[in-house]
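It would be a great kindness if you could assist me with a short task in structural biology. I am sending you one protein, given as its amino acid sequence and as whole-number tokens for its backbone shapes. I would ask you to consider whether the tokens describe a fold that such a sequence might reasonably adopt. The full record is reproduced below for your convenience.
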Amino acid sequence: MIDNENLLEMPGDWQRALCVVAHPDDLEYGCAAAIAAWTDEGKEVTYVLATRGEAGIDTLAPDVCGPLREQEQRDSAAVVGVDTVEFLDHRDGVIEYGLDLRRDIAAAIRRHRPELVITLNHRDTWGGGPGAPWNTPDHLAVGRATLDAAADAGNRWIFPELTEEQGLAPWNGVRWVAVAASSTPTHAADATPGLDRAIRSLLCHRAYIEALTDEAPEAYVRDFLTTATSRASGRFGDRPAVTFELFAR
């Protein structure tokens, strides 16, 4: 996608979405404004997180940090209308791309049977240009595994133990995988209806934010999300935009 090309509207003809990311706060930084608008429309959205974010706060030991960040994630999901939040219990900071991760995500897709699967930027950098910030190994692993697991979930001969041991029938109903915060977005959702709730949702991660910045959390969160959603507005009819790179299946 060329930088000055217009972004297309995200598809709306679906009922169930599954969001698969590495850490608590990934969705709140990435696409909660879109999720809030979708749940308002009566769509069902479920969150699956690979970790509990237990290695994310330097001043808190993992056994303290993990439960705290899990609760912050559940609270933040509720703000945007998401009731189901699951954790796969991979280790924060050292997630490995491989069969175990693909199997766990494929199982989640079979359980929840989404038409739309959402994940976070799986590319090496944020932004893609010279000097762009390096992405984390966890995001790379989970994003790539989610793209692969969308196909794995529909193939009865890949991970047959999901059927034999867990009773999870293959699910071939994934129509799209959408990558939030991609450096090469193709589609967008209007952030306007859900932006205030997205701000409140990210604010639920207060312990993490207070460890991240000396700025007042309310000011930091509002500035971050307002700036992020305005970046691509010129390519989306001058509307604040939550952007996605959309892969059709």
Summary: Residues 57 and 208 are 6 Å apart (CA to CA).
